[in-house]
Amino acid sequence: MTDLERRGDRSPVPAGWTYAPAPESTEIVSLQERYGLFVGGEWLEGAEHYTTISPRDEAPLAEVAQAGEADVHHAVAVAREAFSTWSALAPSERAKYLFRIARILAERSREFAVLESLNGGKPIKESRDVDLPLAAAHFFYYAGWADKLEYAFPNQDPRPIGVAGQIIPWNFPLLMLAWKIAPALAAGNTVVLKPAETTPLTALLFCDVLRQAELPPGTVNIVTGDGRTGAALVDADIDKVAFTGSTEVGKAIQRRLAGTGKRVTLELGGKAANIVFDDCALDQAVEGIVNGIYFNQGHVCCAGSRLFVQESIYEPVVEKLKRRMATLRVGDPLDKNTDVGAINSRMQLDRITELVEAGQAEGAEIYQPPCRLPERGYWFAPTVFTNVAQSYRIAQEEIFGPVLSVLTFRTPDEAVEKANNTPYGLSAGIWTEKGSRILWMAERLRAGVVWANTFNRFDPTSPFGGYKESGFGREGGRHGLEPYLSFS
Ligand code: NAP
Ligand code: MG
């Protein structure tokens, strides 16, 4: 028996015991007071501005331009002009620029990681060890494809489509930018990208990387602003929309685009099932459950927010899970020991709070480990609900926060049926020692990505995307090039 188990109380660590603070210095980041729009390789002055803050303490960080319709149209016209040069460049030359961007991102990764955590609230250890390495890896990966499109799509004469309008969310700001920009450029398109309103700063710092890489002006343009800027981009003279965000806005975009001939890919919400069978490696599964829902405060479209536990192991799983949750350190995103950082915005915090209250009102049982939340900023304790019925809002709606709903099943058939009982279909997880069961389940789960004995694993070579209300189109891998190419 380990010391922890012998202690027998509910808390696996002595009361009052804690890590010493290990704050990452923010000195490496130098912010401008005010940012304009990055168009044609230049900074254009915006007419209106808003303040972007840090969710950890609500401190203002910088003024950011709110691009209006005319600004967006101008950026698109500039991208259109740049298209003739960029698409005519030898593919091996395009690849060199992408490699250069990848290398600069890797070199400046600490600066980017600190800024990502500062503006978005995610723990520095995640920005540092996940977001930044993956963002650079995406550019490296697609750089490799730029001069091999003929081999990726033989006898199909792959050609770039023109100007891509790209709209991204706030949960993985730089990584989503990389997912969007890298394949678009590799395929020979030019880009106008709108970052999320609450997390524009790493996209703006990325403009500096583009200049350092001497990317031809106008190839990538960044316009900041809120949903209105996104809507203007959808309506502008672009050839393709690539959107990641909520199902609601995704549907609105699809309606707007109907009949226009513009191409579209949508990466929307999710309500993933993480399914634990009684023959699994239990401690490993508990780590996977925790990673599945508390990674990035649960602000993850593929988060494992519905846990399905086989009835025979329900009690040990829930007990181990609660003990593990008590060791999660919630707090300053810039502290290297932090596991769960700040909620991205007041709006998101309100949404999480509302859904958690609905869960309690509907009769689910809530557990939150004792943790002291900072007074300023936006915080939510890691939360788990038991006694959840499939019809509850917390089992149906995407919460996009550190909130897990636990349900049970008896047979694999029942697990599949319950897991698929959602309008979404982005991802799923299976925990079992039995290989044949993994294959049997994966075949039947209506989800774009199915993880086995792991969760939230990403790799640029692997296609990612949804079914049903989680959207359509794939990002990553060879598949990720297709939406940016036309074929004969
Ligand atoms: P969202 O409103 O869909 O935002 C995604 C992006 O679209 C942002 O850049 C947003 O700008 C922009 N946008 C908003 N309205 C638009 C419109 N009418 N036309 C074009 N673009 C528009 O999502 P959110 O407000 O960030 O979060 C709301 C919910 O979406 C979350 O609770 C979560 O459930 C879901 N979500 C899913 C993902 C995912 O990865 N699948 C990511 C983030 C959020 P603003 O930033 O100014 O809103
Ligand atoms: Mg929004």
What does this structure look like?
- With 488 residues, the chain is α/β, with parallel strands linked by helices.
- It folds into two domains: 34-268 and 470-486, Aldehyde Dehydrogenase, Chain A, domain 1, CATH 3.40.605.10; 273-460, Aldehyde Dehydrogenase, Chain A, domain 2, CATH 3.40.309.
- Helices cover 39% and strands 17% of the residues.
- The chain has helices at residues 3-7, 69-88, 91-107, 109-120, 124-145, 149-152, 173-186, 201-212, 227-235, 247-257, 282-294, 314-325, 346-362, 393-396, 412-419, 435-444; strands at 34-35, 37-39, 42-44, 48-53, 60-66, 159-160, 163-167, 190-194, 220-222, 240-244, 263-267, 273-276, 306-310, 365-367, 383-386, 403-409, 427-431, 449-452, 471-472, 485-486.
- The strands form five sheets. The protein has a seven-stranded mixed β-sheet with strand order 14-15-16-13-12-17-18, with helices on both faces. A six-stranded mixed β-sheet has the order 9-8-7-10-11-19, sandwiched between helices. A three-stranded mixed β-sheet has the order 1-5-4, with no helix packed on it.
- α16 links the parallel β17 (427-431) and β18 (449-452).
- The site of NADP nicotinamide-adenine-dinucleotide phosphate has 26 residues, from α9 and α10.
